[in-house]
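Protocol step 4 of 6.
Sequence for Cadherin domain-containing protein (Ranatra chinensis) entered exactly as in the expression construct, tag removed. Do not edit the line below.
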Amino acid sequence: MQLTPVGTTVFQGVKAVDSDAGANGLVEYRVVENPGDVERQEAHPGRTPTVADGAGHFAINLPHQGHVTLVTPLDYEKVQRYLVTIVATVSTTFKLSRHT
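Step 5 output, structure tokens:
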């Protein structure tokens, strides 16, 4: 992954479904910051804290497709694992979101 060029799609499996038809059924995805997950991972005794929040390194450029792309180079010597939090939002009068 360290040699992966910026702009490369690294994951395509993001999928959420809304039962509404038409525009109300469109799902938009985005990568969001979640430093709390990183803090929980680093709190384990005996583990080297080489986990980072994926926001800023990964993005979803086409929000209706959910393809995760690399937006900055990765350095495996500094960080071996990134936690990427993705929010899915439906296009309705009442915005609903789910985190995964």
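Step 6, annotate. The longest strand covers residues 27-32.
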